[in-house]
Amino acid sequence: MSLAPGSTIGIIGGGQLGRMLAMAAARLGYSIVVLEPQADCPAAQVANWQIVAAYDDPAALAELAAASAVVTYEFENIPVAAAQMLAATVPVYPPARALEVAQDRVAEKSFLNGIGIPTAEFCPVDNDDQLTEALKKFNGSGVLKTRRMGYDGKGQRVFRNMETAGFAGICEAMGNVPLILESLVAFEREISVIAARGPDGAVAAYDPAENIHREGILRSSTLPAGIRLETAAAAQTAAGKILTALDYVGVIGVEFFVLADGSLLANELAPRVHNSGHWTEAACVVSQFEQHIRAVAGLPLGSPARHSDCVMENLIGDDMRQVPALLAEPDLMLHLYGKAETRPGRKMGHFTRIRRRN
Q1: Cα distance between residue 42 and residue 29, in whole Å
Q2: If we measure between CA atoms, which residue out of 218, 223, 220 comes closest to residue 193?
Q3: What are the CA-CA distances from residue 217 to residues 88, 153, 326, 339, 354 (Å)?
Q4: What crossing angle do the helices spanning 16-27 and 288-296 adopt, rounded to 10°?
Q5: What DSSP designation does 299 have?
Q6: The dihedral of CA 34, 38, 42, 45: what is its sign?
Q7: CA–CA distance from 81 to each of 87, 88, 106, 115 (Å)?
Q8: Within 13 A of 279's CA, how many CA atoms are on the CB side?
Q9: How far apart are the C-alpha atoms of 182 and 9, rounded to whole Å?
Q10: 209-214/49-51 β-pairing
């Protein structure tokens, strides 16, 4: 059963993804309440009201549940216990199970392998001795990551063809937290698929985007990706398989490495709308943000077809100086996030250049 117009959707998290979800919800006739500890956050600027409190504050969660017909979230690091508490009284989409999988890289890769989706090889690492053994397994190369809370390249260290000994102090330098060592992958390009699943099990997958990262941060997403049709179809199929296995409702982002033979290794999944799907605002009739609201509200999913080829680029830090020139360009859509302070490495907005398809 779909939510009636005028119903309230709760969003946990007040960043730019919450902002764009709130804007999409308003277009479909819904009200938005945001739970976010930072007052006047980007999402609150366009929402109906904000609950200023921690994500795990019991009183705030009770207030959010009472106010909302359904609750969703804009990032994957909210406490699983908070989602479970809310789910006792109000529908929460995507389900808490998706958070459990996505919040721990070992759990995530084990889940993907368990449903037949290959990933890079990996080893859990809890101390320097385990790191040494894992590097021996991967011939002295690999990417050491925190199992939890890492994003935009944070909490990572790369090893290349190193001697497989003498790593005392590395785990301490990484914060003495659970780690994972992933084997290096000789990939040709990185792609991602944005896909959605409704409560009825219907799945809609957008075309894969080809992504460029610098310093661990997404810089651009290009459509179409420079991949074979069968590779694109395999990525979309894998995304649908993940959605079904998690009994998922909402939009998910799945990142893949494309190997020389066109085969895929899943890199990671994000149980939410995703930066590499921002291009859908400009190049599709139904954006990933509207698609997510449609899904969690029980509405029919929209077509994921794109009407234009495009390149989406993030505006990071001092890239904001480009804004006047960008606004003078034809066939360009600009979206700024309402952040008052510009800082190095901070995503301030994005723009998408479109090229109409014949």
Answers
A1: 20
A2: 223
A3: 36, 6, 21, 18, 22
A4: 70
A5: P
A6: positive
A7: 10, 11, 19, 25
A8: 33
A9: 38
A10: unpaired
Quickly count helices (H) and strands (E) in the chain.
11, 17
pLDDT in tens for each of the 358 residues of the chain? Answer: 899 999 999 999 999 999 999 999 999 999 999 999 999 899 999 999 999 999 999 999 999 999 999 999 999 989 999 999 999 999 999 999 999 999 999 999 999 999 999 999 999 999 888 888 888 899 888 999 999 876 555 567 888 877 666 677 778 888 889 999 999 999 999 999 999 999 999 999 999 999 999 988 999 999 999 999 999 999 999 999 999 999 999 999 999 999 999 999 999 999 999 999 999 999 999 999 999 999 999 999 999 999 999 999 999 999 999 999 999 999 999 999 999 899 999 999 999 999 976 6
Hey, what are 160's tokens?
């290349």
| Total-model pTM | 0.94
Q: From CA 208, how far away is CA 215, in angstroms rounded?
A: 22
- Beta strands, E only, 65-188: 70-73, 122-125, 142-146, 156-159, 179-182
